[in-house]
Amino acid sequence: MRIGIIVDSACDLPGEFLEREHITILPVTVQIGQAVLADVRNEEATMNFLSGETGARAFEAETTPFTVQQVHDLFLNKLVLDYDYVFCITTTRTRSGIHDNAVQASYTILNDYKPVRAASGNNTPFMLRVIDSQNVFSGVAVPVVEATRLRAAGETPPRIRANLENLARHTHAYMVAPDLNYLRNRIKKRGDKSVSFLSAALGTALDIKPVLHCNQGETEPVAKVKGFANASERLFDFTARRVKSGLLSPTVCLSYGGPLEEMRKLPGYDRLRETCAAQKVEVFESFMGLSGLVNVGKGALTVGFASEQSGFD
């Protein structure tokens, strides 16, 4: 059985991994004033788009996920021909409309695929399953990597589905953003209350950085640390402890809103990499996608992994 995987462009994974595993991207379109770019996870295009005046107004960005019709057309024009079963893994429905659009499209896709496949000489059934990752950024990446491992191991679609849905419930993403004013302006535009105005003002004045946590679609601050480097080190060291305690999937995903060389110079990074190597945990490092950057600002760091343990220490 040919199993396909499709993700939205807010999933932070390296481009070479996505290409090697033949993972299809659902682009998110970003508009800032008159400037428009479809996020297809191109680092150079993203940084060019966020330069100059456009970048200064990034917090005003409007993001538009693939519509129901666009998802429907992508499947019927390509995916129902290339695969027999497709897993569509999306950013949490509490933060993006792509999940609900994909679910709505799935109904018409399953009604319309038969003549399309028959025209290519294939009369076998086609199935798809939309999986809510219940997470954001590098957190979305964790079940995607697991899906590729299960596919390579020859697991059946029902077992893959059950594993992914369980993993999503236990996947945790953590983020440290360097610019609280930007983050506050952006989440205010989105109607979010993760960082209050007072917290942003005090945090900026005192150089206090919150560590934000996402699990099961809910986001909240779990720590406040003075200085971005210190907050990043605390997050890296915390992740290393979770790795030593045992993860549900041998995967840690990192993403950064800038050149990865900058992330690799942050304190605690080397210790985390050494811990992962010792525990045989694979690390995926990715430049943050455009839709993520306009939501949290340049220079943000995110870490994703799956663990039965909760809490930040």
From TrEMBL:
Keyword Calcium: no
A GO MF term: lipid binding
Sorted UniProt keywords: Lipid-binding
The protein's name: DegV family protein with EDD domain
Record lineage: Bacteria, Pseudomonadati, Pseudomonadota, Gammaproteobacteria, Lysobacterales
